[in-house]
Amino acid sequence: MSERASSKQSLLVDKERCALLVIDVQNCFVPGGTLAVADGDAVVPLINQLGKVFSNVVLTQDWHPADHISFATQHQGKQPFETVELPYGTQVLWPAHGVQGTDDAALHPGLALPHAQLIIRKGYHRTIDSYSAFYEADQKTDTGLAGYLQARGIDTVFLVGLATDFCVAWSAEDARKVGLTTYVIEDACRGIDLNGSLGVAWERMSAAGVKRIQSTDLL
Ligand code: VGL
Ligand code: ZN
């Protein structure tokens, strides 16, 4: 048996054209944080390993003002996880999280990605949420990430992080919209799964042409 055939690894990363997008691995989204995703911290060691496969690493950081419109506290009589209608569509209301400059909003201290080249902050406009790393929730306001990747000749992205069914899924769908070949590494993500949102997110990603893979496909 050849080396290659005995290896579990089935995908090769072109270091120039590929980037690892590490979505919202922040204190707020792991146990102990303000919007903890179950088992969210379990992805950190795996993401550190995956980071070694890539030359291009981009991180995102959910970065809200204290009075952000996605916070239930801003809507009288509303509780976290209820929804409201906003000019751009239905908005899930969240506990206050990821407030700019707080320790809760900081990147997880266990991340070891010293070669990461860019941190995209998002969700900083008070009246628009931004799950996606590419476009805010109005589907129009551009974060600049697509232009950055294009300018650097990157045409393929691999997504990991939190949460699978919100910021990872919306980022992956938008990555397809801007023409990127898009992979989500499932076991390097964790979901919130609010009223079945995790299954719906995978269906939407699949319909958009997002490829669902496991870390063993790369490691
Ligand atoms: C996220 C809800 C609110 C995420 C961010 O990172 O998936 N989810 N803000
Ligand atoms: Zn948020």
From TrEMBL:
What Gene3D superfamilies does the database record attribute to this sequence?
Answer: Isochorismatase-like
What EC identifiers does the entry list? 3.5.1.19
Q: Which CDD domains match?
A: nicotinamidase
Pathway assigned in UniProt:
Cofactor biosynthesis; nicotinate biosynthesis; nicotinate from nicotinamide: step 1/1
Top enzyme class: hydrolase
Q: Which residues form the Isochorismatase-like domain?
A: 18-212
Q: Does the keyword Metal-binding apply?
A: yes
Tell me which family the UniProt entry assigns to this protein: Belongs to the isochorismatase family.
Its recorded name reads nicotinamidase
- What organism is recorded for this protein? Pokkaliibacter plantistimulans
